[in-house]
Amino acid sequence: MMKGHKREYLIIGLITFLMPVVILCVIFAYSEIVPFGNNSLIVNDFNNQYLSYFIYLKHNFFSIHNLFYSYSLSLGGNFFGITTYYLLSPFNLLFIIFPVNEFPIVITIMTIIKISCLAVTMYLYLGYLLVKYRRNMQLSLQKYDIRMTGLLAVSFSLMSFVINYKSNIMWLDSIILLPLIMLGLEQILDSKRPYLYIVTLSFSIILNYYIGFILCLFTGLFFIYRLSLFEFKKDNLKKLSEKIFNFVVASSISGALSAFILLPSFESVRLNGAVPYSFSDQLRFSPLDILPMVFSNVTVDTAKGGLPSISCGLLVVILLGLYFLKSKITIRERMTSFIFLILLVFSQSVLGTYLIWHGLTAPNGFPDRNAFIFSFIFVYLAFRAWCYHETWSSRTLSQLLVAYILGMLVLFKTYSNLITFHALVFDLVLGGLIIGSLYLLQNRSYRSIFLCLMIACTFDITLNAYHWQKMTHRSLAVSQFNRYYSSTQGIINKLKSKDTTFYRLGTTFMRADTDPLMFGYVGLSNYNSADNTNNVQFLNKVGYFQKYSYWRWMNYNNGATLGMDSLLGIKYLVTSNNKCFNQNFDQGMSDMGARNEINATSVWQQNKLGDNTQYQVYKNPLALGLVSLVSSKVTNANIVGNDNVFQIQNSIFDALNHKNNRIYQSNQVIRKGKNNYQIVIHHPGDAYAYLPAENWAIIGSTSTQAILSVDGKTISYGNQAENGIVRLGNFKKGQKVNLRIRPQDNKNQKQFNLIYQKQPIVQSENKNRLTRVLTQMKNTAPVTSISGTKISFKVDGSKQKAALLTIPYDASWHAVSNGQNVKLKKSFNNLLTVPLKSGRQKITLSFSPLGLKKGLVISFGGCLGLIIFGIYDEKKRHYFKEG
């Protein structure tokens, strides 16, 4: 039936692709998004995380081992889960081609292309349905049917979910495949070949396993819904059983084909400390509260929680109304569709089923990540209604207009917090125009009327998309970021060219916790919600930062103590207090960025290497390498049951040589009023303070951040840049020091007091003892080679020794010593340790993500299964064709 309209179909397909391009360009130009201004689409976690991942991908695209394991991921970590969640999109090849300073423009272009591709895939799906339904109804295909198909496809592509969550750019690829998956499912229901379904479902999982999981659930439910519309007669049962068989087999093959991604990805996030799933019948929101979200221009920040983003334009709302009003669509189908929608709404509002949609884990930000399935169902049912447009009567459309106006007024009265008066007026006027155009389409002047309908719908879609775009949080300032990135990358590269050994680097500024990945250095900071909790807990326990409830990211935080920095190999410190740098940094940093230059460099001053106009670099001569020989007793040390960071550090240094080193010793702390203390120095040397904080729920406000001063001199801001151990200064024995902790805003003193209820812990560092312990360990296990997945080093060990590596223990590491396998152990509940035998040994460690080999075997089995199933299916079709 489409043959006679092939040219029209291709032209509308092209227009379907171009409409989102034009609409988004208008919106972005008005919002001054690059290239139309200095703003960008890099917001929220795109700024905090994804940008660094994409830059890391660019720098390591041809070093695949660095995409399996990265030493820039905090102390080091399994990078496979990040690669498979964020970096497998074929669109990411654009990042490889273009320089980093063009990334903001690339991201704008990539976003526009992805959204336009979504419109095209939906157009292909609806086009297939159009031919099928019109043929079943024995009606000829009209040009305006194809045009309506394109208009609904554009409405779907610019749904509020996509505009609101477009910063999660890695989700869009799998969502683009949703209509093609459904097209493949429709072909299975039509007893056609299942290959499109298998390929698209497999790739939806491979490109982003998280959204792929949601698509698998939805596909299963949608298949059941579509099956329930078939007539269950005796002569149909065999055909139904064949459809079910083909669906189950095709789905199983898709899962098997993607196992090489699924299994190791699951293993990489399994230890992220997520709360175990338990079903709860608690309601997240009343099911009726979802009604206003269907309309355009509602006012709610869904990214912070609340209600799902499901709007996809007033045309879809109006056609939905026509679907459920009087029409030729059977009551059975309408009732089944209504029940299906109700079940979906309840699955979204009930906490237990909501968590199932999200992989049995509560989303860490960006709730209702499956909301796009509602928009898909709405468009599908709206399209079903359009297919029966010849049967619409003037009376039906008049009833719809009245129902629409009354419904909008009731919703405005009930949900005035969501629907503003301006939104009400816009929706009433545009809705009235759309219904009026549909009414006039019952006459025969199609071209002009459909043009009016298209203009009204386009204006509505554009206005709704702009409305959601306006609620976007502060974006990255492009020019400032580019200046900051180029200058900082320059100093990092210069340092790396001078020192090619393995070392870690700290900074007193932090654009984001993912800076080590962005700039390609080995540090301590990281922001990844799937990170191993043992690693987070370790850095928290030794005083780099304070971990509160949902806190899953790690900061260098200007360091802990000199001793801990040295043990973990912090060899260089980069700092800057240049005015130009500060301006670029403040406007180019992420929401989680911070800088705290005041006091951090004091302990490093005597080892200043030099500086340029913006940066100063300091060297730590005590810093150890990646591997050191230590006492075998380190594997017995446990730091979990202690909350005193200095006692924990003492226990670590004592375990290293199995001696009582007493490197950190207590000083007397006397309270002198609210948050004022006198410190009596009992032990000379560098004194450090640790301020245990409580009530993390109110710490996020800048007005409750602390200012620390010693004898009237400000030494630190107790914020995200330094909320762990803080160096107070170098003092003599018997010296008395006044420590004051105050809020940045005195109006918030009450809240501030709730945070800092506990007395600070102040201890001094014995540098002579520290130097002795570290000197004994230095260069005892030189590394001969290192890559992302392999480490080799030589030792002259004994049964009383062990090789301690300052990277986290991971069961994916395997060790071989002189050709024999060695069972790896864990020290201090986190660090990787190799037990040693006597004599000279060459030890090689190799990393292979858990589940990868098993996944590859299953995927190979999936390929064989696909071939066998294909042969069986083709023979069966040939048999029936011959018969």
From TrEMBL:
Transmembrane residue ranges: 9-30, 50-68, 75-97, 103-126, 146-163, 196-224, 244-263, 306-325, 337-357, 369-387, 399-415, 421-441, 448-468, 855-872
InterPro entries from the UniProt entry: Uncharacterised_YfhO (IPR018580)
Keywords, in A-Z order: Membrane, Transmembrane, Transmembrane helix
Protein name, entry field: Bacterial membrane protein YfhO
Organism: Loigolactobacillus bifermentans DSM 20003
Lineage: Bacteria, Bacillati, Bacillota, Bacilli, Lactobacillales
